[in-house]
Amino acid sequence: MEYLIMGYAFLSVGIMGFLYAFIMGMLLLRKKSTDSKKKFFLAFLFLAIFLIGAYEIGSSEHGEKMEDTQEHVVTNEVNSNQTVSTSDETIQEQLDSSIGVSVEQFVKTFNEKAPMMQTQLRITHLDTNEGPGSDSFQYYFTDTLILTGTINKNTGELREVGIIGGNDGTTETAEDILAAASLLITSTQTNASVEFGDDVIGKLGFYDKGVDLSKIDNSTVLNGIKYYVLALPSIGLSFGARSAK
User: Fold this and answer.
1) Phi then psi dihedrals of residue 9, to 5 deg
2) Over the stretch 13-44, which tens digit does the pLDDT of each residue have?
3) pTM for the full model?
4) Are the beta carbons of 207 and 130 closer than 8 angstroms?
5) Cα 243 from chain centroid?
6) Which one of 61, 100, 110, 192 is CB 3.0 to 4.6 Å from 187, fit for a cystine?
7) Hey, is 208 helix, strand or coil?
8) How far from each other are the two terminal CA atoms of the chain, in whole angstroms?
C-alpha cells in the first residue's frame, strides 16, 4: 500500500514538473538561451519520475488484486454469504495518517537548522495544490533538487515528505542532497539535534561499506516515523519520511 501512495505522489510530481520544465525549455530555446538545455534535462528527470510512479501504481494494484482474489476464495470457503473488503478502509487510514508535524513547523525547523549545517538551502514559500484525498506541494531548491510532500487535509499535518535529488556527478550536488535529506529528517522530529538526520541516514545503510547507491532501497522506523532512501534509476536518490502506521 505504501508503494501505491508513493506511486501517486511520484505521478503527480512527475507530470506537473515535466510540463513546467518542458514549456520553460521551449520558451528559452526560442530565445536561443543556453539555459534551455537545463530545462530539457529537468523535463527528462520529471518524465522518469512520472514513469516510476506509473510503474509503482501498476505493480501495487496488481498485487492488491491478487490479495483480494485470495481473500475472496478463503472467505467463500468459510461462509459463502460473507465477503470481506478492507481495501477502501486501508487507503483511508493511509490518507488520514500523519507524522505529527505541521507544514509550518517543518519549514520553521528546516530553516532554523540549516545554518547549523553550513548549507545555503532554505525553504522560502510552499505553494499547496489541493487534491481529492490530500493536498500536496513541491519546492525547488535547485533544478535537480526538489522537496515534495502530501498534507493531511483534516489536520494540516504532513502525511509524507521527501526530496528527489538528481545526480549530475558533482560534489556540490551530492552535498546538497545529503544536507537536504538530513534537514528533512531532523525537521520531522520535535527537538531533534542536527546530528539526528545524519544518524538516520547512517541507519538507512547509506554509509555502509560497499553499498551500491544505484540500487539502494532501505527503510527504518524511529519514533513512529518511517524513513526511507530509494535509488531512482538514471536520476539519483529519494529520501523521505511517512507515518509508520
Assistant:
1) -65, -45
2) 666 666 666 566 566 666 666 666 666 666 66
3) 0.67
4) no
5) 13
6) 110
7) coil
8) 11
